[in-house]
Specification:
Elements (H helix, E strand, L loop, with lengths): L1 H11 L7 H21 L6 E8 L5 E3 L6 E12 L2 E4 L24 E5 L2 E5 L6 E12 L22 H18 L7 H16 L19
Antiparallel strand pairs: 1-7, 2-6, 3-4, 3-7, 5-6
Helix pairs in contact: 1-3, 2-3, 3-4
């Protein structure tokens, strides 16, 4: 993509020079722009799972070191003998919890809430358990930066059909920067093309919630 953007710039600004670092920085910002739009659409882009350990008498589980990086939770599952059960998210400060006092085994089905990059369990477990929970979450991919390799590969969760949008948005960003510095540039064709592609991008999706609502269903044997 660096080569394609560089070619676009060469076609429109004769004699101007853009470093590959400048180009990669603009591409990274364009990828970020569309990635966040895709995440807000709630279509399941950039979603993955991670197993979480239970620690005895500890209510907090840190998500800070998850890889890829945690952005927001979708659903939290409790591992039981015959599969997994979705846990109920605590929505209010005074929500009653019928499992209070039950802190281990298959009957341990705590409510939970998010506090920053932590999950807080109510009640905390009475015994430790490896991979006692499974978290489905939306992650934030690593965007290209100036220090990325010129032949970088972006996250596989990004639909390749929208890479042209990224290419054009990065091209326009760089040309507008030169224009602001006093150069005479022509990026009208790029803007027209991007407007058409962005219109298709927007009409293909409506913004939907990113989370799955707890329904009380026992999803065993998944």
């Amino acid at each position: 993509m660096v080569t394609r953007v560089s070619t676009n710039l060469g076609d429109r600004v004769v004699g101007e020079y853009y470093t590959s670092n400048e180009i990669k920085d603009a591409i990274g910002k364009a990828f970020e722009y569309y990635t966040l739009k895709l995440i807000r659409s709630g279509e399941g882009h950039f979603k993955t799972t991670a197993n979480l350990d239970l620690t005895a008498d500890t209510e907090t589980i840190s998500l800070a070191l998850l890889s890829p990086a945690f952005l927001k939770g979708s659903i939290l599952w409790r591992k039981v003998t015959n599969g997994y059960i979705p846990l109920e998210k605590r929505e209010g400060r005074y929500d009653p919890n019928i499992t209070v006092g039950v802190g281990s085994g298959d009957v341990y089905l705590p409510k939970y809430k998010y506090r920053g990059t932590n999950i807080v369990l109510d009640p905390p477990p009475k015994t430790s358990e490896i991979a006692g929970l499974k978290l489905e979450y939306i992650y934030l991919p690593t965007f290209p930066t100036r220090s990325s390799a010129d032949n970088f590969t972006f996250d596989s969760g990004f639909p390749t059909i929208y890479e042209t949008n990224v290419e054009l948005r990065a091209t326009i960003r760089l040309l507008m920067g030169k224009e602001a510095a006093g150069a005479v540039v022509d990026y009208g064709t790029f803007k027209d093309d991007l407007r058409d592609l962005d219109s298709l991008f927007e009409t293909e999706r409506d913004e939907q919630p990113d989370t799955v609502e707890y329904s009380g269903v026992d999803y065993r044997n998944l």
